Amino acid sequence: MSSLSLAVRDSSTMLRRNLLHARRYPSLTLNLLLTPIVLLLLFVYIFGDAMSSAIGGGGDDGPDRAAYIAYVVPGLLLMTIGSTVVGTAVSVSNDMTEGIIARFRTMAIHRPSVLIGHVLGSVLQSVISVVLVGVVAVAIGFRSVDATALEWLAAFGLLVLFATALTWIAVGMGLVSPNAEAASNNAMPLILLPLLSSAFTPVGSMPGWFRPIAEYQPFTPAIETLRGLLLGSEIGADGWLAVAWCLGLAVLGYFWSAATYGRDAK
């Protein structure tokens, strides 16, 4: 077999291994998935009327909760990805500390396949989680009637690209963490950053000193791009910024993970 065939075979094996782990121990994935769902229900049904006024929704008849559902769902879909990849950091840390990686290194397998399996499994879980949160959003009133088929395809591509970028960062966090608890804590910014973005309220409504925090981070341009694609509105420069953030984070995470994994192997 060629080296490429071996790499594909071993990566597929590691992917199946990670999916089996996720199936046998679903509590971590479910706990992380519940966070965006609970926030969706909380912000729509508890804060929906007040937040609708903040984004200019509603009219003479009062706040329009449907307008806020349309606004908040894109941010929560990306927050779902951030929540899901935290489990990847924990899984990688467990592999590094429980001895299985040392055993893999004694076997004739493609060395990067261990990390590639984690990444592919995490991206697949992220897509499934996004679909589940999207189903809940549709059930409570989210509609995307103005988006074309091409915009839907672009939205899906953005979600996969964003999941890939965050997963490589999470893999690096898992590799440098001494245990699962530290990995979970190190990956916590991937859940907190969406709360400091335009996911729940427009950047323009934030205090002046806080706006740079919301503007100059990866979640805000990605959220604005996804919102524009799903609602059929203007995207502007956010599309290029979102892609640039995704590619930059993916490259950074890949080289960070590869360097850390290679160093630990010595």
UniProtKB/TrEMBL annotation:
The chain crosses the membrane at residues 25-48, 68-93, 114-140, 152-176, 188-210, 239-261. It is found in: Cell membrane; Membrane. It comes from the Bacteria. It is a multi-pass membrane protein. InterPro entries: ABC2_TM, ABC2_TM_bact-type, ABC_2_transport, Nod_factor_ABC_transporter. Keywords: Antibiotic resistance, Cell membrane, Membrane, Transmembrane, Transmembrane helix, Transport. Coiled coil: none annotated. Its main location: membrane. Residues 27-264 form the ABC transmembrane type-2 domain. The keyword Transcription regulation does not apply. Belongs to the ABC-2 integral membrane protein family. PANTHER family: NODULATION PROTEIN J. This is Transport permease protein. It comes from Streptomyces cyaneofuscatus.
